[in-house]
Specification:
heterodimer, A: alpha/beta, Vcp-like ATPase, Chain A, domain 2, Rossmann fold, 2 domains, eight-stranded mixed β-sheet, four-stranded antiparallel β-sheet, 26% helix, B: alpha/beta, seven-stranded mixed β-sheet, 16 helices, 40% helix, elongated, transferase (chain A), tRNA processing (chain A)
């Protein structure tokens, strides 16, 4: 239940993030027994490079506290959507926090928003969406993969988020979002191989007062095709972006300093002695950038659907003509 | 599907009402406007638009600017149903490439005067453009793409339609970022979006923000994410007498939500927290003598502080003058209706101002005595709130060095909770990183910057936009631990 509200103390059934270092974090489910890969029920012991942790021993400890491992220590954190995104078990490619933040901002989500997400995937985006729209909003999330849906459903349950999300196994490109969502939602997010196939369904699901459609596509061809479709359906103000976050490592660098002035004159031994005392290195606080970093994640496109009374009629005619 | 126009439920909040802020869009240009009974909107340097027509109309309505006869540069608005279609302007003939086009300045046969005459004769934008096209020698030789570009360019100039939209953080940010980015510290939307994520701001919990400058953008964006009828609070610490509230005002938040936003001076807050109420009162009584003599000076200073802390003195100075002019006009009850020709230089300054209404609202001078009590109560409320619970997230958007601010505010952050610091420069964040790392109760620190690129997406003509922005700023995030 660790995603529902702020908690001070770890309880049975919580998900905690075990922090060893920024590149070594793990989500742990706090319970006494877990099933191993062979399906056998065993004691829940988590092994790290710094030794083992009996997970159940975390119960009663404070979030943010230091815990002993057999050969070192680690911190336990209460998960936020950002920490979850970095540690969650991948069942698909996931969207990361820089893109997630941007998507939420572009869709103008806030508490109370009713939204659609498809596909659910590993639930990385879903957790951040739910944080933004609860308590009065609702997320309808769709995936056509049966196992993914059932795992995600269990996760939402365990994380205490079930009240804010409805999961459905459905191929929305073929079936649409369903009659019950007709003109009900404020925003639709598409992360599908063929987003253009879902655009008409999205138009039906969006409120008559209008709304936003956002889609995430790694390939520019998908973007082009979907944009054409969006314009035909009456969407306006289409914008496509690419957002890359560049991390920097802060560190001290020692820069040798060459004394070249001294070469202009002849020096006595005394001078040389003096020079040695002067500093020959400078300690500089600076950053180093990664040699290799993600250079592309996906194109994020946002489009606006005006309210029905303000939608353009001429475009429709045009598209119908070009369809023929 | 488009037949269903009537049954779009129009609730009260979908209608434009007096007293609210709206976004006025004209093609790619947008502007913030506060709706008033007889309001005037200035577009560019010499177009005055009488806005009373928009009151009571639904958002997203389109209005045509109709020139007011006998009053050059003044327009009234009429509601239109459908903007005239533009796509039939393209010529039937088009060239393959530009080999036959030479720029000798003679391709347009209409003279400047003739074009002006067309405008004054009340021709619609489309009519003007079609005469421009008819009289252009080179138009039919242009490629199809180039014709489209030409029409788009001319459309921007002669387009006479406005649409009115609800304000939102996204739209307000766009208005500022495009034209006055220095007033929001160059804070780009991707950085803003990430701060909102990393700070974990949401409907529940107590959220702590230090922000100086930025027109109240970070606070407004966070309040927006806290949302109406929820349990969350925002404590917004600032260093001056008055916080900047341009964005907060423009968002038209309901009172219930605004009551959960506590804007408090950081010095008073810390003093009250550490030294108690008596020390604050001592401090006030000591200052009273000095303050009385400096009364007038003091108000000036406060308005200056709320004015955007622009690095460029010149800019803030002209802004001040404009705002003063605005209040004057408001007090007189007339909005520059009759005496336009009288004072050209002041008018000019007024025209250069982007959203005079807001600037004016900002300058409303608070009643001093009532205000004194109010800020003390507000500060006390913030101190009480933060002693009953720790902050869920800490956000610092500063022009100052963030290290001291972070050190002072981290004790109010809950354990295992995140903080995020935005700064336009990297060096102060590097120093903050090192210092906090050595203190050792902060983990998972990351320093990063962002690259954002927008794209032109058109069939066969997709490419990154020619112009991009390179003022991303830097963000430092981390988590507090025991």
């Amino acid at each position: 239940m660790s995603f529902k509200k702020i908690k001070e103390v770890i309880e049975d059934g919580d998900i905690v993030i075990l922090y060893l270092n920024p590149n070594n974090m793990h989500p742990l489910e706090v319970k006494e027994k877990i099933s191993n890969k062979k399906g056998k029920i065993i004691d829940n012991v988590f092994n790290t490079a710094y030794g083992a942790l009996r997970v159940v021993s975390l119960i009663g400890q404070k979030y943010g506290s230091k815990v002993e491992l057999t050969r070192g220590w680690a911190y336990v954190l209460q998960p936020t959507p950002e920490l979850w995104t970095l540690t969650l078990p991948h069942r698909t490619q996931i969207i990361y926090s820089p893109d997630i933040s941007f998507i939420i901002h572009l869709m103008e989500l806030r508490p109370g928003s009713i939204i659609i997400e498809t596909g659910t995937g590993s639930g990385s985006l879903s957790h951040a969406l739910i944080r933004t729209i609860r308590p009065s909003g609702h997320l309808y999330t769709f995936d056509f993969h049966e196992q993914r849906v059932s795992i995600a459903s269990t996760e939402f349950e365990k994380h205490g988020l079930s009240d804010f999300v409805t999961l459905k196994e459905k191929d929305v490109c073929l079936e649409g979002f369903g009659e019950e969502l007709k003109h009900k939602v404020d925003a639709v997010f598409l992360d599908l191989p063929h987003p253009w196939l879902a655009v008409e369904h999205a138009t039906v699901a969006l409120k008559k007062a209008g709304g936003k459609l956002c889609f995430f596509s790694p390939c520019i061809e998908q973007v082009q095709r979907t944009c054409t479709k969006l314009i035909c359906e009456g969407f306006i103000e289409l914008h496509t972006y690419e957002c890359l976050q560049r991390e920097m490592n802060v560190q001290y660098k020692l820069l040798p300093i060459l004394d070249l002035e001294c070469l202009k004159h002849k020096h006595t031994t005394e001078d040389i002695h003096k020079n040695r005392k002067e500093k020959q290195e400078e300690k500089l606080l600076t950053v180093t950038q990664s040699h290799s970093l993600p250079g592309h994640t996906g194109f994020i496109t946002i489009a606006v659907l005006p309210p029905t009374y303000a939608r353009k009629k001429e475009i429709h005619l045009q598209c119908r003509n070009s369809d023929k | 599907m488009n037949a269903v126009v009537e049954d779009t439920c129009e609730s009260v909040e979908d209608v434009i009402t007096v007293g609210t802020h709206v976004i006025v869009k004209k093609q790619d240009f947008s502007k913030i406007y506060k709706v008033s009974e007889n309001g005037i909107l200035m577009l560019g340097k010499n177009q005055r638009v009488e806005m009373q027509e928009i009151i009571g109309k639904p958002f997203w309505s389109t209005f045509e600017m109709v020139p007011l006869s006998g009053n050059k540069g003044t327009f009234t608005l009429t509601l239109t149903d459908e903007i005239e279609p533009w796509n039939d302007l393209k010529g039937e003939l088009s060239g393959c490439d530009n080999r036959s086009i030479t720029d000798d300045g003679t391709s347009q046969r209409l003279s400047k005067e003739e074009i002006l005459q067309l405008q004054e004769a009340g021709k619609t934008g489309k009519e003007i453009i079609s005469s421009l096209i008819e009289n252009s020698k080179s138009f039919s030789a242009k490629t199809e793409y180039s014709q489209e570009k030409y029409i788009k360019k001319k459309k921007n100039k002669y387009f006479k339609f406005l649409t009115i939209h609800k304000t939102s953080i996204l739209l307000l940010h766009e208005v500022y970022f495009k034209r006055k980015h220095e007033k929001i510290g160059g804070l780009r939307m991707d950085a803003l979006a990430q701060m909102l994520s990393y700070s974990d701001v949401q409907s529940d919990g107590l959220h702590l923000l230090y922000s100086n400058g930025f027109q109240g953008l970070p606070a407004a964006a966070m309040i927006n994410r806290i949302g109406t009828n929820t349990s969350g609070y925002l404590i917004n610490l600032h260093p001056g007498n008055m916080p900047q509230t341009t964005f907060i005002e423009a968002m038209n938040f309901p009172q219930e939500l605004r009551d959960r936003h506590l804007a408090v001076n950081i010095y008073s807050f810390l003093r009250l927290h550490y030294q108690g109420e008596s020390s604050i009162i001592d401090n006030i009584s000591k200052k009273v003598v000095i303050k009385d003599t400096e009364e007038s000076h003091d108000t000036e200073k406060s308005s200056e502080e709320s004015e955007g802390e622009t690095m460029n003195d010149e800019v803030s100075e002209t802004d001040m003058e404009v705002s003063e002019l605005e209040t004057e006009i408001k007090e007189n009850g007339t909005l520059l209706t009759s005496d336009t020709g009288e004072d050209n230089s002041t008018l000019k300054r007024k025209l250069e101002s982007e959203e005079p209404e807001i600037e004016a609202a900002k300058l409303k001078k608070p009643k001093k005595s009532a205000n004194k009590l109010k800020w003390l109560l507000e500060t006390k409320r913030a101190v009480d709130l933060l002693s009953s619970m720790k902050a869920r997230g800490l956000t610092i958007v500063a022009k100052e060095h963030p290290l001291q601010i972070a050190k002072a505010l981290l004790p109010f952050l809950g354990i295992s909770r995140p903080f995020v610091i935005f700064h336009a420069h990297r060096e102060p964040l590097q120093e903050t990183y090192m210092e906090l790392k050595q203190k050792r109760n902060v983990i998972n620190m990351k320093l990063f910057t962002n690259f954002l690129r927008s794209y032109q997406v058109l069939p066969n003509r997709t490419h990154p936009d020619i112009l991009t922005n390179d003022t991303s700023g830097y963000i430092l995030t981390g988590y507090l631990v025991e």
